[in-house]
Amino acid sequence: MSKLTQIPKELITDALTACLELFKVMVPIIIGVKILQELDLIQYIAMPLEPVMGLLGLPAEMGLVWAFAMINNIYTGLIVLASLIGDNPLTIAQATIIGTLMLVAHGLPIECAIARKSGARFRFQILTRILGAFILCWLLNQIYVATGTLQEPATMLFQADQLGGGDSSLTTWAMDQGKNLISIFLVVLSLMVVMRFLKAIRVIDLLDAILRPVLNLIGIGPKASAITVIGLTMGVSYGGGLIINEAKSGNVGKEDVFYSLTLMGLCHSLIEDTLLIMLIGGHLSGILWGRLIFAIIATAGIVQLVRNLPSSFKDNYLWVSK
User: Fold this and answer.
1) pTM score, two decimals?
2) Do the Cβ atoms of 263 and 220 come closer than 8 Å?
């Protein structure tokens, strides 16, 4: 019985700790977005992003969502999305595309710093993730437009009534934002429960068995493949932390470290982050299958390209020479 009561306590404590860190970043951003809305400045800030977002079939304002996610994390992007969505209702295709943008390129300062500690060049990892996110989402948009699929309105958990509306009082706005923050806590807690359950029923082990042969096929050696699978399923912070130790110990070669981190950068946290983006209406065709297939093909191409590059170029631009 003590074990049964201990598990819920641990989950709630972990979720509270994680959310407190998130909210330290999010609350100032919520207030900042509200000020920009009240001063009617959103459209001017988003204007330079309009051509890029237009190529992806998104409203210009979605560039702000992606920008905040790149600098901070997916949750920050979601809270900005919640602040803007009242004026920009999205289709399922659009929710999938903005969700995929955030999934591939988010938390870049922190996650690329992990890559740098492991021996991969910081600038290359950032460039790969931003370009990879754009190319993947451009392809998804072309497919959705050509086939006419996923054009129905997306159902989003983080909708907020009257956000930014001229007739809503600050008290109403503050209450709506409080509800959103509570929703985020419940989402984080739910995801932690799901992850604990999936580990218990050995789904993570099954994914490991499926993905390892694929990693070996595209050129990631067996010593790095186990850690890469952890990154793919659990996230860069988990896989990256392990690969830092392995890289420092010399058990994994610098090329395998580079390939592993590149793949992890383009596609990681397949379970948790995918479930999170599903809550804003994202479709599995993009946020899971499109992301995974694109990452594997892109990494396989990078592996073949890198093998034919001069050693001096690789040491100067791709990884740190030991």
Assistant:
1) 0.80
2) yes
